[in-house]
Design goal:
Blueprint lengths: L7 E5 L2 E5 L4 H5 L13 E5 L12 E5 L15 H14 L3 E4 L3 E2 L11 E5 L6 H13 L3 E6 L9 H9 L11 E2 L22 E5 L5 E6 L14 H16 L4 E4 L39 H14 L5 E4 L6 H4 L10 E2 L2 H4 L5 H16 L6 E3 L8 H4 L22 H16 L4 E5 L20 H5 L44 H5 L5 H14 L7 E4 L7 E6 L2 E6 L11 E5 L13 E6 L2
Parallel strand pairs: 4-5, 4-16, 5-8, 8-12, 12-13, 13-14, 15-16
Antiparallel strand pairs: 1-2, 3-17, 6-7, 9-11, 10-11, 17-18, 18-19, 19-21, 20-21
Length: about 600
């Protein structure tokens, strides 16, 4: 028999397996899964987990505070609005919420430019409002994780303002990365690094004597100077910040740009793409601004601080590190608890790529005793309803979608998004959801240039659309102004005309809605304990059109081909469409079957 998808065949103890990444010795160490009668070929990858830790199988819901719910009528979401709607998230079935930044900030980059790490920006409320949010989350048995932004701060931060006036070679400037320029009169940047938001990663300042002076590094906007993590004072300050929020009841931190804090000695030019990108992935494995070894000691120290507060406080790395075995170094037992799985997010519906990434993720992270995470959308990427609304890459692959671009097919995208989410939530490990994806929201693609807020749009002169489309304020109640986002001023980004039809209250009464599919998925995922389960590829359904795995007694099959696929024997648990349970598996559909 020929192995499917070019996989190598092995016979072990009389059973036939196909494998795409494991050696025979590795397979012998995996407990054999007895295939149900309908399956003739299984490739085991991951055993069910008995390790303790709520995060290992948790579903965590990302809240983007500016766009969640506006309770005070100023057109921008706030902490009180989050508190008012937390019961909706508890009813959805998530285990925790992750809050994007709500700290004091000039809001040049939607709060990722922090001017005070230990206070709430008045735009979002007060520390008292934060405490009320924590109290309500505790009542609902929801944990709260906060963003922390340690790579850079706002140029309005008191420490950076002190650095500007203190002069070259001062202790104040050593908190940041100031360097003399190159060329005649120092009028050229210190190296060739580029900002992720476009343009050079260096800005020259005017010294107190009125003359052009040193340059400071900012991997992002010029209003976001990078900290110098070679300075012990920076370490001490962030340890203070961690304790401040842990003392207020936070359950952990999502660490923004966790891979970038430490830069290579001497800040050498980067021979590849100057923003750190490589042709194989992001970021380049050898880029001098990413993934430096000293980072691990920082996170070991942070882990020890969290453990002082008990075993249930966690760190999650936003670490763009490739390849996956290298990312596993970030989640060793004394470092981070989780790391975002960006390869999975970017795999789309490419079945060969999905299979490889899932297998590689589970094997790499199993090797260090860590769970994998899975995610399809967040505040930095086009929502997956819109991404999957194209046959092939979008018109601006890796960027937003504008009104002049070819528009996605929303009906197609929503059907595929439901299938992809169902496939993801059947996987063992933790999962992240982005606010509004449970409503099947697409990106807003009609925002005019005059209303765009993302600094990427401005810094590239509109060449890059940016991330505003996935950040549009949510629709809550279809008949209310602004689809129930808030009464008062218009939302900070305009809502599409389709928003009222997708509002939460309208979907609640529809058994076939996207919202009720998510509720059913999360309920069954918890009941079946899929997050702590196992995974074996079911080769009978792994081909160019379908991909299938067995998690315990649950069979998950996704069909991305053009033709329907007959179902194997087994009781239907859920399917991503409203098709009858006895109907074949349609194109762009996923099904969960009880196979035991």
């Amino acid at each position: 028999m020929t192995a499917p998808l070019g996989l190598e065949a092995f016979t072990i103890q009389g059973k036939l397996f196909y494998d795409d990444s494991m050696s025979v010795d590795s397979l012998l160490q995996v407990e054999a899964h007895e295939p149900p009668a309908a399956f003739t070929q299984l490739t085991p990858v991951h055993d069910a987990s008995t390790a303790h830790g709520w995060w290992r199988s948790a579903v965590i819901y990302q809240i983007y505070p500016r766009s969640f719910r506006d309770l005070n009528g100023d057109g921008i979401g706030d902490l009180a609005g989050i508190t008012a709607e937390l019961s909706q998230l508890a009813g959805l079935g998530v285990d925790a919420v992750w809050l994007s930044p709500f700290y004091r900030s000039p809001q040049r980059d939607a709060g990722y430019d922090v001017s005070d790490y230990c206070d709430v920006d008045p735009l979002f409320g007060t520390l008292t409002d934060f405490d009320a949010l924590i109290a309500e989350a505790n009542r609902l048995n929801l944990r709260v994780i906060a963003d922390i932004v340690p790579n850079h701060c706002s140029d309005k931060h008191v420490a950076f303002q002190a650095a500007l006036t203190a002069g070259a070679n001062s202790p104040e400037r050593d908190v940041f990365i100031f360097r003399d320029g190159l060329g005649e009169d120092g009028n050229q940047p210190p190296n060739n690094w580029q900002s992720h938001f476009g343009g050079p990663a260096w800005t020259r300042i005017i010294e107190s004597n009125g003359q052009p002076g040193q340059w400071y590094l900012h991997l992002f906007d010029s209003s976001q100077p990078d900290f110098n993590w070679d300075n012990p004072a920076v370490h001490a300050e962030f340890e203070r910040v961690l304790r401040f929020w842990l003392d207020r009841g936070i359950s952990g931190f999502r660490v923004d740009v966790a891979h970038a804090l430490v830069k290579a000695p001497g800040l050498p030019n980067w021979g590849g793409r100057a923003d750190g990108n490589s042709s194989e992935g992001f970021p380049g494995q050898d880029a001098p601004m990413f993934g430096q070894p000293a980072l691990h000691d920082i996170y070991r120290r942070w882990r020890s601080i969290l453990e002082e507060y008990g075993p249930d406080r966690i760190l999650c790395a936003e670490a763009n590190v490739d390849p996956l075995p290298r990312l596993a170094q970030w989640v060793r037992p004394d470092e981070m608890h989780q790391a975002f799985n960006f390869p999975y997010l970017h795999a789309g519906l490419d079945l060969n790529r999905l299979r490889h990434i899932i297998t590689d993720s589970l094997l790499s992270l199993d090797a260090v005793g860590a769970p994998s995470t899975w995610v399809l959308s967040n505040h930095d990427v086009v929502r997956h309803v819109s991404r999957f609304g194209y046959d092939g890459p979008g018109p601006r692959d890796g960027d937003g979608i504008g009104p002049d671009d070819v528009q996605p097919n929303e009906e197609l995208g929503r059907r595929r998004a439901a299938a992809a989410t169902m496939f993801m939530l059947g996987l063992p490990g933790g999962a992240y959801l982005y606010q509004g994806e449970e409503l099947g929201l697409p990106d807003s693609t009609s925002i005019p240039g005059s209303m765009r807020q993302d600094p990427t749009f401005a810094r590239t002169g509109g060449a890059r659309i940016g991330r505003d489309g996935c950040r549009v304020p949510l629709p809550w109640r279809s008949a209310e102004p602004n689809a129930g986002f808030g009464h008062g001023l218009d939302p900070w980004l305009p809502q599409p005309e389709s928003w009222p039809a997708l509002a939460r209250d309208k979907q609640e009464s529809d058994p076939a809605s996207h919202l009720n599919l998510y509720r059913s998925l999360l309920a069954e995922r918890a009941r079946l304990r899929l997050g702590s389960g196992s995974l074996a590829w079911v080769e009978d359904y792994c081909n160019g059109s379908t991909l299938a795995y067995l998690n315990g007694g649950t069979l998950v099959i996704m069909n991305v081909g053009e033709e329907s696929v007959p179902l194997p024997e087994g009781q239907v648990i859920l399917r991503s469409s409203a098709a009858d349970h006895g109907h074949p598996l349609g194109s762009g559909e996923t099904i969960w079957l009880s196979a035991s």
